[in-house]
Amino acid sequence: MIKKAKNKKNEIPELLTLREACDVLKCHPNTLRQWDANGILPAIRIGTKRVRRYRKDDIMKLLKQKK
Description:
Elements: E1 15-17, H1 18-25, H2 29-38, E2 44-46, E3 51-55, H3 56-66
């Protein structure tokens, strides 16, 4: 059986909550809010409360840039 390569556009990104992203990046939630406002680490806003979610891929890219 031959497996087809996954198309990245069709994949659902793994999303992290604000708290989970803070734990990974070792920063305060207000820092992430400011990074979102400044375009450094954009958040996805979900639901009527517009809660923030962060793409795991975006966080990993940010960590690699900082090294």
